[in-house]
Sequence to fold (300 residues):
Amino acid sequence: MLIVMTGGSRGIGAEALRHLKALPTARILLGVRSAAPAGTSGLPLDLANLASVRRFADAVIAELDGAGIDAIVLNAGGQRPSVAERSADGHELTFAANHLGHFLLLQCLWPHLANGARVVITSSGTHDPEERTGVPPPRHADAAWLADPAQDPGVDGNPITAGMRAYSASKLCNLMTARVAAAHAAGDRRGISVVAYDPGLTPGTGLVRQQMWPVRALLWPLLPLLMPFGKTMNSLANSGRHLALLASELRPPAGRVYASLRKGRLTWPEPSLLARDDTATAALWRDSLALCGLPTHAPG
Fold:
């Protein structure tokens, strides 16, 4: 089983990787910024740099030697304390790394998926205002405004709020990407399945490593104490195990794309109203293609 994965060096991804490496025939190509964990082949990848994403995709394709990819796990992601940082391509950094880099990687690797392949994109319940996660939910999925918040007339004045909303918006973009890819897969004779996975609020990850110190040093360490009371909270072991299961064994029920882990149980709810907006979803896909320098088309 040949698996291509991002975000496998820490947190939920590292826990999922532990399970995936134990599969009898697993071969894992992991996008890394530094050294790769033992038992994987590490290939350089900076998701906030579109040229790096293309080089990574080319390296993966070369490694395939004509074989197909059995699973793509697009798991890397992060939060930032503002929307001030820019990627190598000039885009807001959270949007660039969480959405745009993964979007381009999916475009590059889609033609190389094997029959029956799985695509898993890590999203988040923060995309849905009905979840009341405490993270400001997205107001829109306008790619131009997310790439350059200075153009957004409704951008938050508080830097921390703006940074957190950029995160939830990027997770909305992940889910919308999965919806379009799943619709395309339905007409693809290879039997590809696509899932956007919400692992819930999971203490013990490196998600907030770039946040301000009060979040990193005070709030995040207290979360394990709140786990018995949080309806969306899951252990690191459970979140990682289910990510691995979606990449290797589980498939979505008919008509479902969004998998949400709730107290260790995988559920298949409807995503937010905005995530189900076909016009907004199509616009995000089209505009993301343009930002990646690609012509308008379906996946691959």
User: Anything to note?
Assistant: Residues 213-220, 222-229 have pLDDT under 50 and may be disordered. The first helix runs from residue 11 to 21. Residues 11 and 205 are 4 Å apart (CA to CA).
